[in-house]
Amino acid sequence: MSTLFRIFNTSASALTAQSVRLNTIASNMANASTTASKPEDAYKPKHVVFQTVLDAADPNGVAMPVRVRDIVDDKCDPIPAYEPHHPHANEEGYVFRPGVNVVEEMANMMSASRSYEANVEVLTTARALLQRTLQIGQR
């Protein structure tokens, strides 16, 4: 397989991985203000773990696809808040909110979005190069 086609594979795998990352971040942000009566019931923020995949057909390592290895729960503790009139308050008047840092999640979303856009540009450029290569013989 030519290097140009490996670039398509690598960028496509990165688009898929960044899409999963964006969905995970969106889930964290959507659940940032949820509450629970017990700490163990509070939403746990999630993070995506990427892994590069070595291509045996590419000994030079020019194109290394990426994949989602795992989606892991954050180890942060839920945040207790004293709200005795809240419907989810426990006997002591506390509710537990997830340890989602919305500012950090927004920064992660911007990073994932930019990575996604960059890979779209790589695909667009590789496609244009391939089209120009095919037009060489037509002149």
TrEMBL record:
Originating organism: Allochromatium warmingii (Chromatium warmingii)
Family: Belongs to the flagella basal body rod proteins family.
One BP annotation, GO: bacterial-type flagellum-dependent swarming motility
Protein's UniProt name: Flagellar basal-body rod protein FlgC
PROSITE patterns listed in its UniProt record: FLAGELLA_BB_ROD
Keywords for this protein: Bacterial flagellum, Cell projection, Cilium, Flagellum
Lineage: Bacteria, Pseudomonadati, Pseudomonadota, Gammaproteobacteria, Chromatiales
GO cellular component, one term: bacterial-type flagellum basal body, rod
Keyword Transferase in annotation: no
A Pfam family reported for this protein in Swiss-Prot or TrEMBL: Flg_bbr_C
NCBIfam families, alphabetized: FlgC
Domain of life, per lineage: Bacteria
Tagged with keyword Iron: no
Quaternary structure, from the entry: The basal body constitutes a major portion of the flagellar organelle and consists of four rings (L,P,S, and M) mounted on a central rod. The rod consists of about 26 subunits of FlgG in the distal portion, and FlgB, FlgC and FlgF are thought to build up the proximal portion of the rod with about 6 subunits each.
Record-annotated Flagellar basal-body/hook protein C-terminal domain positions: 92-136
Sequence ranges assigned to domain Flagellar basal body rod protein N-terminal in this UniProt record: 8-35
Subcellular location(s) per record: Bacterial flagellum basal body
